[in-house]
Amino acid sequence: METSTVFVALFLFVLVLLVFSPIMTWVERKQSALMQNRIGANRAEVFGIKALGLIHPLADAIKMIMKEDMVPTGAHRFLHLVSPFIAVVPAIISFAVIPYGGTYQMWGANVSLCVADLDYGVLYVFAIGSIATYGSMLAGWAGNNNFGMLGSIRVSAQMISYEVALGITVVGLFMIFGTLRLTEIGVMQQETFRLFGFLEHLDLVSAGTAWLEWIRIPMWGIVLQPLPFFMFLTALMAENKRAPFDTPEGESEIVAGYFIEYSGMKFGLYMMGEWIEVVVISALLTAMFLGGWSLPWVSESGMISALTPSFGENMANLIAMVLAVHVFLIKVVALIWFQMLIRWSMPRFRYDQVMNLGWKILLPLSLANIVITAFGILIVQEVTR
Amino acid sequence: MRTALFWIFSVMAVGSALGVVGSLRSPINSALSLVLSMLALAGLYVLLEAQFVGLIQVMVYAGAIVVLFLFVIMLLNLRGSGAGSAESRPIGKAAGAVVAVGAVLWLVRRLAASRAPWPEVDPTYGTTRAIGEALYTDYVLSVQVAGVLLLAGIIAAVVLAKKKID
Amino acid sequence: MGDVLPFHFQVVAALIFAIGALGVMLRRNMIVMFMSIELMLNAANLSLVAFSREIGNDQGQILAFIVMVVAAVEVAVGLAIIISLVRNRDTVNIEDTSQMKW
């Protein structure tokens, strides 16, 4: 393994576990407070420094670690211990295939900002997401509690229903880009296409008209497939069991569902898994639909070759790499904000509404999307021949 | 490295297969051993350069089929109905084990004669693109028939599991 | 691949198949029997993929893929049957569902 891969993996590890998960609790509290016109949690202080409530995640962690770890009688001890980990680990290792930037040549080393540039990158995320079902499903069973088991049944049915829609919604995107590799998808989204270029091919406008060059749109996934973006977002949020889809942990219906026999840090692990999954959802959507690590209309290779005369090749690559990571993280943060917005504004769906959405609305729409995308690709190939 | 991985995955697969069959306490233990066995087999597939089949094994088998098993076990609330006195058949187990081990040993003796090495395959062997191209050009009939079979299976499952509406 | 020969995979597949067959014959719990059937299907898949790699083309992998699809359908329908059976006979022991005389 190259040293650059190790460093990228370490960077991601630190970013995810030490930065994102505590900050997400703070984001949830403060954003919900802003939306609900209150202040939120701001009492925790260290030596009188309140830091806008950022000490609270630390206080939460200390509280959870020091709580008594109860295992109810008749519970399956091994499953009770292992289920939180089965829920958290898939969320964390999904980061392995997500590219934070392209590949850069710096000081003789070929640095690729993607830990595992797999040929079947997105399928890996889906496969790992299928395993995450077990963490929630076994939790309710392991607690030897009727409410817990009811939550387990609900959660397993919900998660496997939305896995179907998850896979099919993005098939249209893969048909257009022709690859499953997330780094290649990120590179392909840097191209632009002329919005009215088809007029030239249909001979309505003479070839080489200048004004056609002005109206160029970047080939982002959301431009090519707007509806699948929202369908994919919906399916991923339903997989995450957050937002309006949290019937399994329905606090007013079945008394915390499958979480019911968990206390202390094990419960904290479930919450952490959900928040890390929010980040994974945002990162995946950014990499596939929102142009990844590149600014719109700015091609990265063009930028590097423009910067090289003044800064030298190494520094130009370094600047491009830092810019790429920043752009990616800004887009991820925007999507996290959007998901929190949805979570705190929509009421919880009823269970049959959730199943209805998954099977009767998302699935036919995604299948229709595949057919329409196929027609679109054929038409474009015919017109531009 | 690959030898070590092969031995790890093989021992895990065979061990969890024994766990599926021999776990007498609860069907949940059998189901969890089945998941482990599926994951170990997926690892063996990836060792055999069959990436797509390995991924589909995790997605379909370990991620959906065994989830369905667990769902049914939970739905029917089969807590400890793993074994009763009806499960103890010492003569049957002994005879079965002898026959199984004998058959495997005979197989090993037959196959061990040929020590042919692995042929070289190009890097596109077993990738999603290669399998996809083959599935939709040479074997498109089997894909269509599999689709019809899936449709029939869905309808059958829905009809069978419905409660009677009198 | 180091010193892992092709027939090593066949031996592993044979072992898993034998264990699955023993499970079907010796266990009396319906669901565990069904899981043993899945083990046998998996062993056949492993054998197919190993032979496919030994020969060098991808026909075995495609057959393994179709076998996985068929196994998925079989599990769905089989579990539906098991649900109906357990609901009707109120037992998960397969010998209690037999209505034969002996």
Q: Average pLDDT value of chain B?
A: 86
H-E order of chain C: HHH
Poorly predicted runs of chain C = none
Going by helix content, strand content and strand pairing, the class of chain C is mainly alpha
**Number of contiguous helices of chain B:** 6
Percent range of helical residues of chain B: over 70%
Cα end-to-end separation of chain C: 54 Å
Helices and strands in order:
The complex is a heterotrimer of chains A (385), B (166) and C (102).
Chain A: H1 3-35, H2 56-66, H3 77-93, E1 103-106, E2 109-112, H4 121-142, H5 146-169, H6 171-177, H7 182-188, E3 192-194, H8 197-201, E4 216-218, H9 221-224, H10 226-240, H11 265-288, H12 300-311, H13 313-345, H14 351-383
Antiparallel strand pairs in A: 1-2, 3-4
Helix pairs in contact in A: 1-11, 1-13, 3-4, 3-11, 4-5, 5-10, 5-14, 6-14, 10-11, 10-14, 11-13, 12-13
Chain B: H1 2-22, H2 27-47, H3 51-75, H4 90-111, H5 128-137, H6 140-161
Helix pairs in contact in B: 1-2, 2-3, 5-6
Chain C: H1 6-26, H2 30-55, H3 59-89
Helix pairs in contact in C: 1-2, 2-3
Verbal overview:
The complex is a heterotrimer of chains A (385), B (166) and C (102). Helices cover 64% and strands 4% of the residues of chain A. With 385 residues, chain A is mostly helical. Chain B is mainly α and 166 residues long. Chain B is globular. The model of chain B has no long low-confidence stretch (mean pLDDT 86). Chain C has 102 residues and is mainly alpha-helical. Chain C has three helices and no strands. In chain C, α1 runs antiparallel to α2 and α2 (30-55) packs antiparallel against α3. Chain C starts with 5 loop residues before the first helix and ends in a 13-residue tail after the last helix. The mean pLDDT of chain C is 90. The interface between B and C is large, with 86 and 70 residues.
